[in-house]
Amino acid sequence: MSEQEGGNGSPKSSSLTPYEEALEALSSLIIRRTRADGTNFGDQFDVLFEYLKMLDLEEQISNMKIIHVAGTKGKGSTCTFTESILRNCGFRTGLFTSPHLIDIRERFRLNGIEICQEKFLAYFWWCYDRLKEKTDDNIPMPNYFRFLALLAFKIFAAEQVDVAIMEVGLGGKYDATNVVQAPIVCGITSLGYDHMEILGNTLGEIAGEKAGIFKDRIPAFTVPQPEEAMHVLEEKASQLKVPLQVVAPLDAKLLNGLTLGLEGEHQYLNAGLAIALCSTWLKRTGHLGDIYLERTETLSEQFIKGLTSASLQGRAQIVADTHFKSEQSNKLVFFLDGAHSPESMEVCARWFSLAIKDNSPDQTLFHRQLDNPKSSHDVVKMQHGEKGVQRKSTPILLFNCLTVRDPQLLLPRLVETCADHGVYFKKALFVPSLSVYNKVGSQASTTSTDSEVDLSWQITLQRVWENLMQGNKGKITDIVSEELKDDVEMSASNCEHSAVFSSLPVAIKWLRDRSQQNQSVRFQVT
């Protein structure tokens, strides 16, 4: 941290806005190490309680009515359902999730809306300046995620929320959110293999880390898990006398003909967990009389509204490209999802395959009443043209993943699942991330010229894809579309089935050009 960075939100230079200055300060807290090595007190979990003392948050957190959620898959969705339900029950909600897609403020939601810049800056500098003043070489500034978790607690305490829903960032036992000593209820979503370099190489080890959020005699819920993982969860629960219950997926019939606000079959599992968490929160906080609950036979109006109006960017989200005029908005449609494990890639592939099929049961999603302004369906009305003109479907993959992920595990699962549903990608496009590792916000955008961008990882992904296509000809591949064969001069590396682009904007421009030049084609990009 340079001495110039600093307090009270005063800009370091006239070129930065107050918000950009805060993001610069936040960026200074990013570290590259992924596992504590035990030699620095700042890496140890107990130091978090020192930070709470510095920020006078100990008592305030103990008074919060918190729902704490860990897991490998579905944490964000479960927390989103939970928040939406309780908000529709009339409670003032605070929701802390990660990661964000565009703006850091997405992580902090008050009553379902991301915190405004004015409040974010006030709370940010209050925490940052106080910690900067009180930390030293022995107790250094908290790292990036720890600071964000502390900031979330400060925001929710100051805003006097009725309920704070806290999503674990990584693991559970040593996660920054786990300073919570007495939550109202805990939840564990589906477990799988992820962050193995930190959490362990077996499902048992991973489950042990997740179960670290269990607290003495505090009720907890989970979904059906692999036997190895469930055994560990039950063992940890028994040690702490935690009443652990396994909840079943939500029965769609209980929604009275409506559909969940978040798309995908797997969301019924997350919704079932959210219902259990909310029901228990209402009971343990003395609000059961306010809401009529009888989960096995019916759902209250508030629960149904919460489940059907929930929205979460980047999870099975459908976005028509607004670059085109409204009558052409369905020519280029993006199907967005943040899947990053083999299991979630399979789920994503099933959703995408069903969503793009003209005659699939999910066709109704393109005609849904537009009564939810946050719904991804606002931007997609039909798979066909507005005037009923049939267009040729051209599925395209637009992909990137972190170098800690294994594309040899991710890409085959995606391709094979799509092929099982009769969907074949005509082209795969690989792009680098928009932001660099050690920056947050608008200043994090790639500023290098195309020739300076390191595309070695994207070339690796492309090689995996081409090998996958070549090794499965006639099984999971289809004829390369004529409209995609030529004119790839914008790409940094072009192969028969794929191309690498220097940035996401360049790839999107290429897609828009192809769409304009092929009026009879509907490009469906996931």
Automatic annotation (TrEMBL):
PROSITE patterns: FOLYLPOLYGLU_SYNT_1, FOLYLPOLYGLU_SYNT_2. It catalyses: (6S)-5,6,7,8-tetrahydrofolyl-(gamma-L-Glu)(n) + L-glutamate + ATP = (6S)-5,6,7,8-tetrahydrofolyl-(gamma-L-Glu)(n+1) + ADP + phosphate + H(+). Residues 69-216 form the Mur ligase central domain. The keyword Oxidoreductase does not apply. NCBIfam families: folC. PANTHER family: FOLYLPOLYGLUTAMATE SYNTHASE (PTHR11136:SF16), FOLYLPOLYGLUTAMATE SYNTHASE-RELATED (PTHR11136). Catalyzes conversion of folates to polyglutamate derivatives allowing concentration of folate compounds in the cell and the intracellular retention of these cofactors, which are important substrates for most of the folate-dependent enzymes that are involved in one-carbon transfer reactions involved in purine, pyrimidine and amino acid synthesis. This is Folylpolyglutamate synthase. It comes from Medicago truncatula.
